[in-house]
Structure formats: structure tokens, C-alpha cells
Amino acid sequence: MSYNDAQDGKAHAKRQAGAYVSTAAANAKINRAAADDFAAAAAAVAAPEGALLDLCASVSDDKLARPGVLRAAAIEQAIDKLETAARSAYDGTFQPAPLATAGLEGEWRLVFISSKLTLENGMSGVAALPFCSSVAVLQRLAGSNPRAQCIEIVEYPLPRLWSFRSFKEAVVIKGDWEIEGRNWHDGIGTTGTCMDGLRVTTTYASAELTYETLPPAISEQLITTVATHIGSRARVERAATGDVYVWERQATPIEQTVQMLLQ
Asked: Domain total for the chain?
């Protein structure tokens, strides 16, 4: 290699490095702007978001459960109000994808669900075993692998040999998640009704239960919902069946919550 070729190679590498630095700086600036916009919108919906979480409080403290008829109706009304306020915060539409992505990342706990099937089987399906129940569902959505992690605490009715109490175990399913870049408006369900929102797809590929690998029926799951609100404290999702999920953001790492729930 000649001297000139070597110099050209160094110059090219320097330009590439400069381009990478510029791109990283631009992306960081976009991310900061998205975070600022997300915070501003979150402040605008703080009141209806807080009202919804107050109604959901204690509903699923002991195990995943549907509240009484009156409280369930109040929760669904609060969800409608929050979704309306969220659309107003974004000029009648929903969060742009960068805001939604920034908002989705974090630690979550399922605090309300209207799905009878999920209440009976749990998120993983393990709770469908006779006399079993789902105590809690926690979720971490992150930017690094595993990008999606869902931990479900399942309670078994049979006591351990050294205890007369029922015992609990953690089902851990891991995978990936993505969010559609555009708002989703599509025919949903057999009624042909439509929902607006951002389509969130979570793909789970592996599952573990007390260091055992679980069968594909549990480990391989594809969950698609429409996120109608992603805020600083709560997130609301609707499924094609019409079922509603309310998640509350957690300040405590989910591993700590899991250890507490397993006691």
C-alpha cells in the first residue's frame, strides 16, 4: 500500500467516525426532545391518570381479579376519560412513535384487566392448571436484550412438605417488543368496530419456571394490543377482543417486587 493510499484510508476512517459521532449526537438530541414532549403531555393527563390508578388500587393486590360491578364500571369510565384527555394532549390524535417508544420502556405491573380468559389462565397460561391462580404480572420493556420480560407469580394450592400454606413460583417469559410507527386504525373483532392507537406487539420466545424450560405452548406467544395511552404513571391497552389492560409504572425494580411477592 502506498503512502497516499494509507493517507486516503485514514481520511476516510476519520470522516466515517465523524459521521457516526454526528448521527449519535442527532439521535441524542431527538431523544431529549421526545422525552421533553412526553413529559409535557404527561403533565396534561396527570389528573385523569391518577384518578384511574386510584380506582384500580387494591383490585389485584392479592391476586389478579376483576373488581365488583360498580367499581369495574367506574374504572372503564375513567379509562374513557383518560383516553379522551390523551387525545386532546396530542391535538386529537395519539402519541408519535418516538414518544410512545420512550414512554413504553420501563417497569410495569398489571393492575386491571377485563379479560375473563386472562383472569382464569394468567398471562402465561400456567394459572390454567387446576386450582392455580395468577397473583401478579410484572413486565419490563427495555432497549437491550431481553427487550421484553414478563414475570408472573403463580400460586399453587398444594402446600410444600415443610409448610401448610400454598406456595408460589415465578414464571419468567422473555422476548422482544415493537411498536408501529403510525397510528393504527383498523377493523377489530367480529363486529367490525375500529380502534385508534399505536399497535404494540410483544413476542415471547422462551419461558422458565424454577430453572425449568417450559413447553412452546407457554414460551412462544405473540401478543398484539393497541396502546391508547402511554403516560408517566399508567398505560392503557385494548385487545382485538375488546378487553382492556391497565398497567401501572413501577419505581421499584421488578426483581425486588417478585422477591416480596414470593414470600
From this structure: 2
Burial of 256 (0-12, 13-18, 19+ CB in 10 A): exposed
Range of the domain at 19: 1-44
Pair (101, 29) in one structural domain: no
Residue 126 backbone dihedrals phi, psi, to 5 degrees:
-65, -35
Kindly state whether residues 25 and 93 are assigned to the same domain: no
Sign of CA dihedral 88, 93, 96, 97: positive
Q: Grid coordinates in use for 69? A: 360491578
Residues 115 and 13 in one domain: no
| Range picked from 4-8, 91-95, 141-145, 160-164 for highest mean pLDDT | 141-145
- Say if residue 200 is in the same domain as residue 140: yes
**Same domain for 122 and 100:** yes
User: pLDDT > 90: what percent of the chain?
Assistant: 21
Instruction: Supply the pLDDT for residue 71.
Output: 93
Residues 132 and 229 in one domain: yes
Amino acid at 166: S
Per-position DSSP letters for 232-263, written without gaps between them? SSEEEEE-TTS-EEEEEE-SS-HHHHHHHHH-
Rounded Cα–Cα distance for residues 237 and 72 (Å): 16
What beta strand segments (E) does the chain contain?
Answer: 106-113, 133-141, 148-159, 166-188, 193-209, 212-213, 221-230, 234-238, 244-249
